[in-house]
Amino acid sequence: MTPNLCRTSTSPPKTPKTPTSQHRQGQAQISRQNQQVQQQTNEANSQKSDRLQSLHSRLHQEADKIRRWKVQTEIEQKQKERQLKDAEETIEHQRKAVVDLQV
Fold first, then answer.
1. How far is CA 81 from CA 46, 48, 77, 91, in A?
2. Whole-prediction pTM value?
3. Is residue 11 part of a domain?
4. Of 62, 80, 58, which Cα lies nearest the Cα of 70?
5. pLDDT in tens, 23-73
6. What whole-number distance in Å separates Cα of residue 95 and Cα of residue 83?
7. How many domains does the chain contain in total?
8. DSSP state string for 62-102
9. What's the pLDDT tens digit per position in 7-36?
10. Is 70 inside a domain boundary?
11. Residue 18 belongs to some domain of the structure
């Protein structure tokens, strides 16, 4: 007996498998999980953005307070310098008056 070298396959040709119900359910679950993660990420980013905007606004408010304080301090300093100059002039006039009276 001679061996048959040309054997034909009795199994049917392989066809692409269609997704099973379990496979489709698994994909749907993964899709829902991905959507949930994306939504959580978006919410976290939104919260971070809101917090950053709040901090930015507070920073500007504090900077404005510092500017107002600086301007007010400069005004007060100029007023005191004028008062000091006036007092020095008054002292000088009084010295001259005392000297004139002594002569």
1. 52, 49, 6, 15
2. 0.52
3. no
4. 62
5. 888 888 888 888 888 888 888 888 888 999 999 999 999 999 999 999 999
6. 18
7. 1
8. HHHHHHHHHHHHHHHHHHHHHHHHHHHHHHHHHHHHHHHHH
9. 555 655 555 556 577 888 888 888 888 888
10. yes
11. no
